[in-house]
Specification:
mainly alpha, two-stranded antiparallel ribbon, ATP-binding, glutaminyl-tRNA synthase (glutamine-hydrolyzing) activity, Aspartyl/glutamyl-tRNA(Asn/Gln) amidotransferase subunit C
C-alpha cells in the first residue's frame, strides 16, 4: 500500500469541508498534522488482529445502573415554586381555546 500524502490544497479542502477557518500561512502545518494522522492509521493497518474479539471498552467493566422505576420525581413543590401561577398541584395557564 502506498502512503497517502496530503498537500496544502487538500488541507484547504479538508478545512473547508470541516467548516473550520484555517489561515493560509497555517495550511502547511495542517497538512503535516493530517499526514501524521494518516501515518498512524497506516501503522494500525499493519497490526495482525486475526482472532481478536471486538471490544466496546478497554476494560471489561459494566457501568453502574439504577433500577428502572417510574416515579414522579418527588419535586413537585420545587418545580411549581417557579411557576407564575399554580393551582391544585398543577401549572395554571391562561385559556386560549374557547
Amino acid at each position: 500500500m502506498t502512503p497517502m500524502s496530503i498537500d496544502k490544497d487538500t488541507a484547504r479542502k479538508v478545512a473547508h469541508l470541516a467548516r473550520i477557518e484555517v489561515p493560509e500561512d497555517q495550511l502547511d502545518a495542517l497538512a503535516g498534522e493530517l499526514n501524521g494522522i494518516l501515518g498512524f492509521m497506516e501503522q494500525l493497518n499493519e497490526v495482525d488482529v486475526d482472532g481478536v474479539e471486538p471490544m466496546t471498552s478497554v476494560t471489561p467493566m459494566r457501568l453502574k445502573r439504577r433500577t428502572d422505576v417510574v416515579t414522579d420525581g418527588s419535586q413537585q413543590d420545587k418545580i411549581l415554586a417557579n411557576a407564575p401561577d399554580a393551582r391544585e398541584g398543577f401549572f395554571a395557564v391562561p385559556k386560549v381555546v374557547e
